Amino acid sequence: MKRLKLHHWILIAMLLGAGIGLPLSWLGARGDVDPDTVATVAHVGKKLGDLFLRLLQMLVVPLIFTSLVSGVTGMGDLRKLGRLGWRTLTIYMVTSFLAIVTGIVLVNLIAPGAGADLALLQAGSEGHELPSVVGQERGVGEVLWAQLEGMIPKNPLQAAANGDILPLIFFALVLGVFLSLVEHGAAPKHEASYREGAPSKEAEEQRTLRENVALVRRFFEGFFAVMMRLTLAVVALAPIGVFGFMLSAAAGHGLAAFEALGLYALTVFAGLLLHAGVTLPTIVWAFAKRSPLQHAKAMTPALLTAFSTASSNGTLPLTMKCVEESGVPNEVSSFVLPLGATINMDGTALYEAVAVLFIAQVYGMDLSLGQQAVVALTALLASVGAAGIPHAGTVMMVVVLSAVGLPTTAVGLILAVDRVLDMCRTTVNVWSDSVAAVVVAKMAGLSADAPKSST
Known about the structure:
With about 450 residues, the protein is an all-alpha fold. The chain has helices spanning about 5-30, 35-75, 80-110, 120-125, 140-150, 155-160, 165-185, 190-195, 200-235, 240-255, 260-285, 290-310, 310-325, 330-345, 345-360, 370-385, 390-405, 420-445.
């Protein structure tokens, strides 16, 4: 009998969680099952899922740090890092812009908010607590500046302890660059004395320094190898965590949330599906010269985990594992993926653009083409600027709402379906990160010809 692969077990766990949770939610709504029992089941499922997510989050900081430092030092020529950075940021901006355009076109064609009952939506938003950032009308410039300022850590250890990924990435890159500069820097003039058999004091000190730096580099390489082995062990538990999250989502939310917001949710889902199923695969085929189906198959465990956990950062260890199995070398994945999990949010950017235009339609505002262009541009910039900020999606929506004069408290109208859509857009975010990785690897001439088999 053929052994089931990891993504098969994850899919089975998702179906099992939904198969138990949805009927329980339906029976609880009918009164055939005690609602407290349904709530308890959902709570137990969430606790089980949270336990797995904590294990993944435990890996994120040491995995990102050791991966980036060893990846940068392994490049040798630091000019490669600059080229890698520009290629990565370019592909991120292009894919995010295409996602936003897809969402805006669909929301104009479908018009899910036209004729919607505002009073009904406001009633449906009761009980959904608004995050504390709502009402803080910050311009996109303020958000971007705050992000730039926050990128430089006052204390790298504190950034690591708080799980602040972008400052951690910045420090790891700087450390890796200077490790390379010291280890591979220009040979001092005193080294000529080695060939004459009489090493000078300065040359001896330089030689000792390089040996010590090489030892530090090997330490990070070894640490990274251990972290990858630990990641494989934690990832093997993914089906258990995925089952818990799906049970919690299905039993706790059910399908009732879609009663008043069904057309809006379908619009977001259609946009995400088009971007993930057409735009991104086309980019893989055209620029990476790879089969999108092969790459999707290699990424299946990460995509299913992203869907169930709704956490790009939490899924990052598994994303790195799957991308490298798809043929992307560590020196690319260690840079592109941590950065992408922090600032590349195609699914979120699309979601925010659709949500803002939906809210405008509900309030009877007919946004002009110019105003919609403002929505697109602001969503694109805010998708980068809001990274690393608590409630990043909500912050971004507040920025975009403010840009076109809509009330920021209108965020509450769509919170009822936010959890389900969050799962979908996180999956697209992770898929987009993986696409960027294979494209950048191909452009750098570093991608493998064919993906390795996934286990």
